[in-house]
Amino acid sequence: MRIIGLGTDIIEVKRMEQFAQKPGALERIFTPQEIAYCQARKNRYQHLAVRFAAKEAVYKALPFGGVAFKNIQVTNLENGRPVVSVADERCRDLQILLTLSHTDAYATATAVVQQ
Questions:
Q1: What is the 3-state secondary structure (H, E, C) of the chain?
Q2: Biggest distance spanned by C-alpha atoms of the chain
Q3: pLDDT digits (tens, 9 = 90+) for 32-58
């Protein structure tokens, strides 16, 4: 497989916390599964922020535009490893690798797209 895209993003956790206070804001960006996962965590805003950063990183790494953030879903394997899926036919033959990290103040993500 060859690398055809690379994307990275960083966001302040406080910014996501402020965004999340707006009615309906989370539902515009995140899937119900992502919201439920993050809301169940002690540091929910860190988890929301890192998923937002992941969506941005994947969007930047894809070799085409026009993918809605709600169509990019970040989940975790049982061992905690993040996994991304994109509900778009154009991604059928692509493999997307993802790494996430967060602190109290910042969340960052990097995505590599291979074909």
A1: CCEEEEEEEEEEHHHHHHHHCCCCHHHHHCCHHHHHHHHCCCCHHHHHHHHHHHHHHHHHHCCCCCCCHHHEEEEECCCCCEEEEECCHHHCCCEEEEEEEECCCEEEEEEEEEC
A2: 42
A3: 999 999 999 999 999 999 999 999 999
Distant-in-sequence, close-in-space partners of 8: CB < 8 Å, separation ≥ 6: 57, 60, 108, 109, 110, 111
Report the DSSP beta bridge partners of residue 11: 107
Find, among 44, 37, 67, 61, the residue nearest to 109 by Cα: 61
In this structure, which topology does domain 3-114 adopt according to CATH? Ribosomal Protein L22; Chain A (3.90.470)
Residue 63: both structure tokens together: 């070799």
All structural domains of the chain with their residue ranges: 3-114
Give the angle 29-54-115 at the CA atoms, nearest 5°: 115
